[in-house]
Amino acid sequence: MCWDIGIVVCGPNEALVISGMFQGENSTYITGGRAIVCPCIQTVQRISLNTMTLSIVTDVVYTSQGVPISVIGTAQLKVNGASNEMLESAAEQFGGKHENEIMEICLATLEGHQRAIMGCMTVEQIYRDRKSFADKVFEVASQDLYNMGILVISYTLKEVKDDVGYLASLGQARTAQVKRDALIGEAEAKKESTMAEAKAEEQRMQSKLSNDTGIAMAKRDYELNKAVYDTEVNTAKAEAEMAYGLQAAKVQSRIKEEEMQVKVVERQQNIAIQEQEILRKEKELDSKVRKPAEAEKFRLVTIADAEKLKVVLQAEAEAEAIALQGEATAYAIEVKAKAEAEQMAKKADAWNEYKEAALVDMMLQVLPKVAAEISAPISQVNKITMVSNGEGPVGAGRMTNEILDIMASLPKTVESMTGVDITKRISNI
């Protein structure tokens, strides 16, 4: 409450409420003016006429379908200074209150009406028909706020959102519907375009057929006239072509004859060149092959004759030497044969006398030779590697024993061949 003395002035965005003595039952309301106030007997109140902007946030309200959504609305309102009735109501409701307190009261009122309207509508109605929702909130809130002296200038639905993805699904469905409508529209447009094209094509074909018919008739007349002219022209042309062909054949025949003559000349030249080449190769063969071969043949024949003569001379010399040597050898053989015959006769007589003893004597003479023949290959060996199995002698003793074993098997061999047991005979002697 404010006490003013004298003249009280208010701006165009304020209203003065003067009450007390001299006012009767009703107070005096002055907007954007001045008044004379008597102190102590009159009271002056100021009411702001400024426009108040409220952001109305309503969280998680279930719509008529049970879908939870949140809505944010924006409202413009003010105390109506043009109506004394509304100023009186505002003075009664908000007298002595600050502007912020007035805004809180209005906000609570609007939020309640907004929540109530949300519960009576579906999500689709709120989201798609925002103007209808705003009009309903505006209409209901204006009635209540009017009684408070508040004028609702405007109400706008600013934002609708949800936390369950309903609006997104609604948008997807709408998007799919729009795409479907677009495809249907495109298909219908194509159909209409195709039909128009087909109709135009039909008209074009009819025009073309008519034109082609006229052209064909004109062409037929032309071809008939042309055939008559062509018959005459072709007859003359055929005669000219026959004459030209005959003349061309004659010319071609002469050309072929000249070509044959040219080929004959070329072939004769090639033959001459080949003959010269053959002569050149024969001379080259004589100089590089035949003459060297004949020279080599003469050299070899000469060497062979010389060798042959040499061999003949050597053979004759050797034959003479052999002849002389043969006579001496024959005499020596004859003498030796006589001596051996006498010796063998004596041995035969001795063998007849001694029989088995003679065989034993012969074997005793042969055994050293057999032993020498057996040991001869071993004497030619540079290295002998012997592997012992842990039984019997090793080294040179082993080799000697093997030779002696061979020698010990000879009596059995003689016995199997002659029937004479040499071992027994020697032990008896």
In words, what does this structure look like?
With 429 residues, the protein is an alpha+beta fold. Among the domains are: 6-161, Tetrahydropterin Synthase, Chain A, CATH 3.30.479.30; 355-428, no CATH class. It is built from nine helices and eight strands. The chain has helices spanning 84-94, 99-120, 123-128, 130-147, 166-354, 356-379, 396-408, 410-418, 422-428; strands at 6-9, 14-20, 28-31, 34-37, 42-48, 52-62, 68-79, 150-161. A hairpin with a 5-residue loop joins strand 6 and strand 7. The longest helix has 189 residues, at 166-354. The chain is elongated and about 210 Å long. The mean pLDDT is 76.
Write the layout of secondary structure elements.
Elements: E1 6-9, E2 14-20, E3 28-31, E4 34-37, E5 42-48, E6 52-62, E7 68-79, H1 84-94, H2 99-120, H3 123-128, H4 130-147, E8 150-161, H5 166-354, H6 356-379, H7 396-408, H8 410-418, H9 422-428
Antiparallel strand pairs: 1-4, 2-3, 2-5, 6-7, 7-8
Helix pairs in contact: 2-4, 5-6, 6-7
